[in-house]
Write a structure and sequence with these properties.
This protein has 341 residues and is of the alpha/beta class. It is built from eleven helices and 14 strands. The structure holds phosphoenolpyruvate and manganese (II) ion (MN).
């Protein structure tokens, strides 16, 4: 439920109304625009009589928000959220970033890959130190040592890192090490204890869509994080499971404009996991740019054939150079046209 207040509402009356709503056990999200003040009521809104609320002097209109996500909802946070990822890198609201690096951190080759993607124009470095693998016998990642390699690369190149967290018990480790962006992968998109735990920090979270997750489920996962107090959520479309078998997943590019319509959070697209094959990554990365993504996440490996995970979808650094040239070209065309509508 949202309450739109009269322009003339005095601060004191607004504060009183907020306290009254909070006394009913609800949280409030006050958004002050140039022309109006909007209060978002978060929680069990059945405790509030909308007619009573609307009858108050300072309230112009009360609107039920039918969507169950509130903090992620564009309805009462109309402006795009810009997430500060550290190292001077902002994402969302016109700030476009490319996150690139290997699927897994494997050792010293991370630095070589990082230098190449940085030189090509990537602004954020990715790499998994804790890997969610279908098989318990597959490579599980370097763990904390892998985080240290990412940090070393981040310091050398002055770029933020994005790395996956799988266990709520690791949040303190990620925070202590100063990880710039915590990724929650498709397999953990509904790991509610993990979502809540990262929500207790202020560290930006790159939240991937579950492989059979609906757009609403992705937004509700974001809501879990935000309702704990962390507003720094970046949504990521990474393909969903369908009946199609020619690609690893089906890239749901519809999700990009739909998420922008429903939510103010930035939207990143991952054509690597969405397609699963190197040859399809470039065309679908360009398509995601054209669809209005605020960023891309791309897997790059110095020797894809030897990668410990996801080699089939990795670009070589040379292929990534080429892709970055084309991304710049397509973004220039989009900018000429005025950007996202
Ligand atoms: C990854 O980014 O390497 C990864 C495991 O992604 P996803 O969770 O989208 O499968
Ligand atoms: Mn991967």
């Amino acid at each position: 439920m949202i309450a739109i207040l009269r322009n003339s509402a005095p601060d004191e009356a607004v504060d009183q109304l907020v306290s009254w709503i909070q006394s009913k056990g609800l949280q409030t999200d006050v958004s002050r625009g140039e022309n109006k003040i909007v209060i978002g009521l978060v929680g069990d809104t059945t405790k509030i009589d909308p007619f009573l609320l609307e009858s108050m002097d300072i309230v112009e209109r009360v609107q039920r928000v039918s969507e169950p996500f509130k903090k992620a909802n564009r309805k009462f946070h109309p402006a795009d959220t810009v997430v500060d990822c550290g190292h001077g890198v902002k994402l969302g609201g016109g700030h476009f970033q490319v996150i690139a690096g290997p699927c897994s951190v494997e050792g010293e080759n991370l630095l070589a890959i990082a230098r190449r993607v940085h030189a090509a124009g990537a602004t954020m470095l990715r790499g998994g130190a804790f890997k969610p693998r279908t098989s318990p016998y597959a490579y599980q990642g370097m763990g904390s040592e892998g985080l240290d390699l990412l940090i070393e690369a981040s310091r050398e190149l002055d770029m933020p890192i994005v790395t996956e967290i799988m266990d709520p018990r690791d949040v303190a480790l990620f925070v202590d090490k100063g990880i710039d962006v915590m990724q929650i992968g498709a397999r953990n998109a509904q790991n509610f204890p993990l979502l809540k735990e990262v929500g207790k920090t202020q560290v930006p979270v790159l939240l991937k869509r579950g492989m059979s997750g609906t757009i609403d489920e992705l937004l509700m996962a974001a809501e879990y994080i935000m309702s704990e107090g962390n507003p720094n959520v970046i949504l990521c479309e990474r393909g969903i499971r369908t009946f199609e078998t020619r690609t690893r997943n089906t890239f749901d590019l519809n999700a990009v404009p739909v998420l922008h319509y429903l939510s103010h959070l930035p939207v990143v697209a991952d054509p690597s996991h969405a397609t699963g094959y190197t040859r399809y990554v470039e065309p679908m990365a360009l398509a995601a740019c054209a669809a209005g993504a605020d960023g891309l996440e791309i897997e790059v490996h110095d020797m894809p054939a030897r990668a410990w995970s996801d080699g089939a979808q990795a670009l070589t650094p040379d292929q990534f150079d080429h892709l970055m040239d084309r991304i710049r070209a397509i973004r220039a065309v989009i900018a000429q046209d005025g950007g996202r509508s």
